[in-house]
Amino acid sequence: MATVDLKDVKKVYPSGFEAVKGVSIAVPDKELCVLVGPSGCGKSTLLRMIAGLETISSGTVAIDGKIVNSIGPTERDIAMVFQNYALYPHMKVYDNMAYGLRNRGTPKDEIDSRVRATAKVLELSALLDRRPRELSGGQRQRVAMGRAIVRNPRVFLFDEPLSNLDAKLRGQMRVEIKNLQRSLGVTSVYVTHDQLEAMTLADILVVMNAGLVEQMGAPLDIYEKPASTFVASFIGAPPMNLLPLSQGPAGPALADGKTIEFAPANAVTLGFRPEDADVTFGAGAPSGALILPAMVEAAEPVGAESFLHCAAGGNRIVVRVAGRATAKPGDQLRVVAKAEKLHWFDGAGRRLLE
Ligand code: ATP
């Protein structure tokens, strides 16, 4: 049983730079919390403060309800898995996994049974006599996981553990990590800048920007109801289309001056996801929908679907269509999005309406 609670955690580096500006997150027992955000948003700093590798300027970090601010990293009973694996190159896989236990003076027999049991779970049993250089990237990553698991810690921390792997392996390891975390039931905090990895792994997703939490919640809730234009454009690929609105005589209007009757009065930005629009070559105008005349600039087939990159009244938008796109560059068409699929944001970029 372990919970991780952060309360108004801040980090000011000696240079005076405030990398984390007051973050509160509660990770329930056995859940996987993913911190995601662009480079420099403070996610690694936050993880390192949980690990005890970085001092906490103010606020508290508690594990199982006990504040650990002044407790050293080794006493926090946390295991960390890094991007560069941090394996000892001259040691065999077995010894890499046994290292932490030996340091703690665990009896030899117990070390042996724990290492072998963990190796079995991770399908590393046949590789225990190899050295890291004799392993593939995925196998090395598994050894790094094994070294963390074998200690049976209360909390796992992952710092971009998959970013050195190629796309296919990353996808496989993502599933493995999720399954492993679930079956072991170890409370975890995972840092990544990859929004897809974040979406698929997280029980709780925390989107960070410039040292602050922009939004926190279940991944699909965040996808469906992004709290800000920042979140809307960070979560989802290709990102949500965001169009600026001006204030026309009869309410918010598009760049071509056309009023959108069903827009909230204070809407400054309109958003819709690439999959939430259809394209039509016809002239009929469905009521209660956004209709944008657009010109195709590029059609990008990716297999089961295609992305149409279009110019619409001075804006660039992307629409996802199923299968192969029949539209070609230069084609004029209309992009239609139902009113209930639209997102509205105010002048500060905050979401309007539910
Ligand atoms: P990335 O994905 O690039 O690793 P991140 O979100 O993990 O980014 P951090 O490493 O937490 O970001 O850094 C947050 C901010 O703090 C950055 O602007 C960084 O330049 C700054 N920073 C990090 N370490 C220090 C330090 N030791 N002294 C001063 N500033 C630092």
TrEMBL record:
The record's section on CDD domains has: ABC_MalK_N
Q: Keywords assigned by UniProt?
A: ATP-binding, Cell inner membrane, Cell membrane, Membrane, Nucleotide-binding, Sugar transport, Translocase, Transport
A GO molecular function annotation here is: ATP binding
Superkingdom, natural source: Bacteria
**Transport is among the record's keywords:** yes
InterPro entries named in the record: AAA+_ATPase, ABC_transporter-like_ATP-bd, ABC_transporter-like_CS, ABC_transpr_MalK-like, ABC_transpr_MalK/UgpC-like, Mo/tungstate-bd_C_term_dom, NA-bd_OB-fold, P-loop_NTPase
User: Record's PROSITE patterns?
Assistant: ABC_TRANSPORTER_1, ABC_TRANSPORTER_2
ABC transporter domain residues are 4-235
User: Any keyword ATP-binding?
Assistant: yes
**Family from the record:** Belongs to the ABC transporter superfamily.
Protein's UniProt name: Sn-glycerol-3-phosphate import ATP-binding protein UgpC
Q: Which organism is it from?
A: Mesorhizobium cantuariense
